[in-house]
Design brief:
alpha+beta; four-stranded antiparallel sheet; two-stranded antiparallel ribbon; 6 strands; 27% helix; 25% strand
Length: 172
């Protein structure tokens, strides 16, 4: 969920100036998403570390007097751990996003909870400041080589690949 101070003119102007200088972090890490379907191949993508993104974001945002703050909380009703990412401007204006990260049971497996938090921190921060830290999994890989004829498919139901949904930002 997106939230903000009553007015956001000053932080919006400062963020626009920072975004003019922000660059996407270098994608130095690789991950593989295992397909649950026997006929579908695993998908590999490149992504930037949270640390490399924070280095870029902090430097450019601080020049415009914007601080980044990320906090967690446990929501009793749903049993989920939430991440709040906040951009705070020296004017007192702020914008934030709130993202459910994982179920509270993950506390019993700290490495899984830590991985989920790192992933959520990277996605939430990068989305809030407008940079990309991973390959676009919605688009097919671009191949500059010759196009091979399509392989014959076996009959059966067609399945669309799963698509990642971007968070919806709503202003109050």
């Amino acid at each position: 969920m997106h939230q903000s101070s009553e007015r956001i003119g000053a932080i919006a102007a400062a963020l626009a100036k920072a975004q003019a200088e922000l660059t996407n972090p270098e994608k130095t890490l690789t991950a593989t998403i295992r397909s649950p379907f026997p006929r579908e191949e695993d998908r590999t993508f490149r992504y930037a570390s949270l640390a490399s993104g924070l280095d870029i974001v902090r430097k450019k945002l601080s020049q415009q007097e914007i601080a980044t703050i990320q906090t967690t909380r446990f929501e009793q009703v749903t049993g989920q751990i939430h991440l709040t990412t906040l951009l705070a401007h020296s004017s007192g204006e702020w914008i934030s996003s709130d993202l459910p990260v994982c179920h509270g049971k993950e506390v019993d497996a700290p490495h899984r909870m830590g991985a989920a938090l790192t992933y959520a921190r990277r996605y939430a921060l990068f989305a809030l400041v407008g940079i990309a830290g991973e390959d676009d999994l919605d688009a097919p890989d671009v191949d500059t080589g010759p196009v091979a004829p399509p392989e014959p498919r076996s009959p059966g139901p067609k399945m669309k690949p799963l698509r990642r949904r971007e968070p919806t930002i709503r202003s109050k």
